[in-house]
Amino acid sequence: RGASVRAEKNFSRSDSSVGLSAQVCLHGGQVVSWRNHRGEELLFSSSKAIFKPPRATRGGIPICFPQFGNCGTLEQHGFARNKIWTIDDEAPPLNYGDNNSNKASVDLLLKPSEDDLKCWPHCFELRLRVSLSMDGDLSLISRVRNVNGKPFSFAFAYHTYLSVSDISEVRIEGLETLDYLDNLSQRERFTEQGDAITFESEVDRVYVGCPGVIAVLDHGKKRTFIVRKEGLPDIVVWNPWEKKSKTMADFGDDEYKQMLCVDAAAVERAITLKPGEEWTGKLELSAVASTNCSDH
Ligand code: BG6
């Protein structure tokens, strides 16, 4: 069952050169692969990942909804990543400038089950469009609609596992001087002091009120990920480092060196929708070659 669900939807640019592709699972609405023109995988997946519903797979881009982390009554990161979504052949058009044809896309839909309504009693429709452009950019657009009689609030995150050469070779630019909530100290609030963020130990932070574009520079792979977001004010940065890695059954002891989670998110302040309202949150990822990382 896990394998067939996992294989539900692959898509690639048939009209472009060679390797460009993305793979999305119905399990979790989770993007599990994104490859560039050279066929190189850009998202991290653990060699110990378990492809078996209802657990989310360790890697790719799990969707955290309607809760982020364990701040709430639901399971960690909410239930959306653990559910089987459907293909949405009748997705309403996006009034978002994303309806053009120069992309390969798939639309998925999640509606609450009876069990979901027991633990989170709000009728919603969560739509996800995953698109791959001719340039190799990957975009995820989520829409949450309140089809309830009452308002509800939720958190959201694209929990994005980027594949990196070695975490010691990576830095993030664009979060300097921002405030962050530190998940390693009960979400205490700090202000970022450094020029760019580099990694020497476990990091688990929610940067708040972030700009719409940040860059993740990987000196080892001479690659820069550009992360663009709309409708999602926060950025979560997570690397479990050595000790925590050893406590995770679906993660290799040394794999923290090859990944970095950078999540476009709405965590600090919940999003509230009145009956009939819809929210849209967009993530766009580009991976560009950087001949000299210090130029950025
Ligand atoms: C991060 C959180 O986004 O996800 C961390 O900030 C958490 O606190 C991590 O440990 C992984 O969560 P999970 O549930 O996928 O193991």
UniProtKB/TrEMBL annotation:
GO terms for biological process: carbohydrate metabolic process. One of its GO terms (cellular component) is cytoplasm. Substrate binds at R58, Q76, R81. It comes from the Eukaryota. The keyword Transmembrane helix does not apply. It catalyses: alpha-D-glucose 6-phosphate = beta-D-glucose 6-phosphate. Gene3D superfamilies: 2.70.98.10. GO terms for molecular function: carbohydrate binding; glucose-6-phosphate 1-epimerase activity. Keywords: Isomerase. InterPro entries: Aldose_1/G6P_1-epimerase, G6P_1-epimerase, Gal_mutarotase_sf_dom, GH-type_carb-bd. Its EC number is 5.1.3.15. Pfam families: Aldose_epim (PF01263). Belongs to the glucose-6-phosphate 1-epimerase family. This is glucose-6-phosphate 1-epimerase. It comes from Zea mays (Maize).
